[in-house]
Amino acid sequence: IMANTANKSSKGRQKRPAAASKRAKTQNPVLTAPDGKTIGEVVNFCTGMLILVVAVFILLSEISLLVNGKLDQSIIEANLPEGEIVSNWCGRLGLRTGYYFMHDAFGLMSLLIPVFFLQVSMRMLKAYKVRLWKWFINLSLVMVWGSIALSYIEHHMDYLFPASMLQWVVFPWGGNHGDVISKLIVDNVGVPVTFIILAASLA
User: Fold this and answer.
1) Among candidates 200, 186, 125, which has minimal Cα distance to 152?
2) CA max distance for the chain
């Protein structure tokens, strides 16, 4: 009798964890989409697609400003009056976006901004593994240095380039960021030393 009682109690103890796990599963159900994916995976996918669209939009806006900026220069200077037809591939919003990044930010180096966004979207879409922090640090350093270097080249080594090229680009090569930093360094240490600093920073 005592053996039977011990067996029953042990069976009861074995059943309790199973029943507890079943209750836990019913209390914390995993939300899934109709195709079997979890809600988190769906959100990541939608966010990744949105970032991808934004990255492509910015990239096309910047490239179009680089190619067709001369055609839209008068419209930009007039603050985009209503009714004017723009040549930017992404329309009026694209012209504003491209002009902001290329003129007010980092100039030609602003092309690296949508490149980083593309990497973020690929990570969220699980297209391939990306170490975003490495991409962010490397692209940031290249963008800041390149912005200053391009501004220096435009203002102090412009004799290396044809006049037609200088006239076609409607924004500072290094953007306002490059112009401000480059001018600050040149005013304090001079043109030759600035060149040495930029060259040495590559080492």
Assistant:
1) 186
2) 106
Q: Are 177 and 100 a contacting pair, CB within 8 Å?
A: no
* Pairwise CA distance, residues 135 & 176, whole Å: 24
Does residue 151 contact residue 163 with C-beta atoms inside 8 Å?
A: no
Indicate the residue type of 63: I
- Print pLDDT tens along the chain (203 aa): 544 444 545 545 554 555 445 554 555 555 565 556 688 888 999 999 999 999 999 999 999 999 988 888 888 888 878 878 899 999 999 999 999 999 999 999 999 999 999 999 999 998 888 899 999 999 999 999 999 999 999 999 888 887 777 777 889 999 999 999 999 999 999 999 999 999 999 87
Q: Which single residue is written with the structure tokens 């159900």?
A: 29
Q: What stretches of the chain show up as alpha helix (H) in DSSP? A: 2-27, 39-68, 73-77, 91-99, 112-124, 132-156, 163-168, 175-189, 191-200
Query: Contact at 8 Å (CB) between 72 and 88?
Result: yes
Which DSSP state fits 85? Answer: P
Any bridge partners for residue 32, and if so which? 38
Spatial contact of 107 and 113, defined as CB atoms under 8 Å apart: no
Query: Taking the CB of residue 92, how many other CB atoms lie within 10 A of it?
Result: 15
Its pTM surpasses 0.85 = no
The answer to whether 139 touches 117, Cβ cutoff 8 Å, is no
Task: Give the type of residue at 165.
Answer: M
